[in-house]
Amino acid sequence: IFKGSDALAFLEEFCAVAEELPDIILLDISMPVMDGWHFLEEYALLMPKMSKKNNLYMFSSSISQIDIERAKNNPLVKDYIFKPLQKQRFLEMVEELGSAIN
Questions:
Q1: Is the pLDDT of residue 2 over 90?
Q2: Contact yes or no for 22/53 (Cβ under 8 A)
């Protein structure tokens, strides 16, 4: 688990090394130093350099309809998931990932 700024630094350092990049990113809206919205802005700038597409999920306890709509309207966000992550939803994410690879 990284702070948003740490995760961006990692992604930037390894953006050309596909096997080092994560397949799934769980992004919380409320993070210290850099919130999830700021992370998304920076991530969007980094995306063209990435050697592999990540599946980015907004993962939050926020039930604000504004947050949910904002995330769902962002093309970088695959889905909005409420905390805590339920086992069934996790298995669906892994299955979606497997389908995308094949």
A1: no
A2: no
